[in-house]
Amino acid sequence: MLIKQLSVFVENMKGRLVGITEALLKENINIASFSLADSSEYGVLRMIVSDPEKGRSVLKDQGLSARLTEVVAVKIRQEPGTLSRLLKMLYEEGFSVEYMYTLSTTGSNTSIIMKIADPQAALDALSKHGYEVCTDVEAYEINSYRPNL
Q1: Which CATH number goes with the domain that contains 88?
Q2: What is the pTM of this model?
């Protein structure tokens, strides 16, 4: 299953990230995972959120450039060599990973967000080689936090 990632083009200035996270908070949208890549003036904030469509709308209403991208969330064991084997398999199947970041780590398992040029074909290859992927519900709610207050 493909996961929708919310990507936001962000100007590097004080308070910009606070504004983004507060806008999502006001709409009760949880950020399950994120990655921030920057340059000197701008950055790209990539997020897995509990409601990607609503998140994009909220951020567009704030005047931000926000879009949805299909990514794959692959489950692997948290042990030496598992990431290497996954990447080698994708390479041998003809895929190139554009970027990746961790979605979650629970016990001995890790879920990794991967942007791959042909995500649907990548899902087929992952399945063929016995890899499990997260469903959208698992990915969007994976880090749901319920404080005991």
Answers
A1: 3.30.2130.10
A2: 0.85
